[in-house]
Amino acid sequence: MADATAMLRSASIVRKQQSSVVVVSATFGTTDKIIRAAESAENGNMSSAETILADIQEQHMAIAEELGVSKATLKNIRELIETMESLLSDLARSNDQTKLLKDALFGIGEGLSSRLFTDCLALNDVPAHWFDAGRVIRTDDRFSRATPIFDEVEQLVKELLDPLIQNGASKKTMVTQGFIGSTKSGVRTTLGRGGSDYSAAILAWALHADALEIWTDVGGVATTDPRITQNARPIRELSFQEAAELATFGAKILHPATLIPAIWREIPVFVGSSIQPDTGGTWIYRDVGEAPLVRALAIRRNQSLLTITTPDMLHTYGFLHKIFEVFNNHHVSVDSITTSEISVAMTVDDITLEDHDMIRDLEELGRLNIEKSYELVSLIGNNINHTAGLAQKVFTDLSDMNVRMICQGASKHNFCFLVDEGRGEEAIRRLHATLIEGEEMFIKSTDV
Ligand code: ASP
Ligand code: MG
Question: What is the pLDDT of residue 388?
Fold first, then answer.
């Protein structure tokens, strides 16, 4: 939500949908600003941090004024700004607490927006109640990328949030913050950038919600990123499995992995446009009416291909276990993998290579070869692993491209391969034209 108008638009969505719990993220651009302010403070540049803070204050005060929020809410907003100010000056002074201070800071964007939005609802005939997400989203203490502790979250939600949710005349919509959590000892954490969708999915899961609706400027899931080809078209229905295989949703990035807790409990998920709420969006269900061979095409940039070669692998077991133990210890996720008798090739995000300890641990297992900056192109659909002729069709379309690694077979729903940096979009445009726009290749698979 960028401004008062966006808040009012969102309030009418909540009224129409009769939502029980609303999870808000920070207003547009605010988290970025807070991060910049924190960086300035850390570098000892308090005056720049103060300037950014003043900007944040002004933006939120303008919304408050336009909405006509209560005195109590104005007071909350002022207090949050003061808290930010003192955290920033602590940050300028402290060396050992920086991660902790930063997470406390980062989450304040959601504090501000949730206070404003609670009032915005109340002023628009939706009785609403503000709720601190830190009370129920229990996490570990990996600051900035904290992991929820699901069984504790479930327990806390049952104790603290569920009883507040009522229906009928006494119903109040609970408004809470996305992105933030807290540790057992009450220290604030955040779940990683874009984490509000994840928060919503976690709460939907813990509450056994009837549905999870994500209203964003993404406006539903498209067959591919519309910035890559203007022929991308909206997808009305998607299965949980297809959603889980999609690397990115739509133009702005919405990580489907964030929906996974909802998918565990088979809670239908809707992704719609908060800007044009009536244009329809995408429903993600367990059972979908139509299961095309290729539903969507996704790209994941900045991928490194790591190959570990060692004769030790020959006729032994446990080698993959050792490799994955390293990734596990360093919290790195591997997206795709292929193996031969004596080597294993895997893709990871380029950024994970900054973890030098991880590289050292992998080097201990064999000869490590690293090739950076590939792009991973994925086809997401149904029966994609045993449809005769698909691979041939794909690679005929891309015959002039260097395809470095191919992953097919692990999933009925995904087929992916690596191409050189800068070639992924062209690959997607060609495949979109033949496999998605070209009706004759839009094979309806029956056995899903
Ligand atoms: N405000 C946080 C961010 O910008 C979380 C979110 O928007 O989902 O990353
Ligand atoms: Mg966001």
Answer: 83
What's the whole-model pTM score?
0.86
User: How far apart are the CA of 434 and the centre of ligand 1, in A?
Assistant: 36
Which tokens is 413 given? 């729903």
Question: What whole-number distance in Å separates Cα of residue 433 and Cα of residue 394?
Answer: 11
Atom 6, ligand 1: residue with shortest CA distance: 194
Strands (E), 253-342: 269-273, 282-285, 294-309, 336-339
- Residue 316 scores a pLDDT above 80: no
| DSSP secondary structure, 136-153, as one string | T-BB-S-TTS--B-HHHH
Give, in degrees to the nearest 5, the angle at Cα 433 between 430 and 438: 145
For 408, other C-beta atoms within 10 Å of its C-beta total 18
198 lines ligand 1 (CB under 6 A): no
The amino acid at residue 96 is D
CB-count burial class (<10 Å; 0-12, 13-18, 19+) for 88: buried
* For range 3-12, the mean pLDDT: 97
Q: Is the dihedral of CA 436, 443, 388, 412 positive or negative?
A: positive
In which element (H, E) is residue 264 found?
helix 260-264
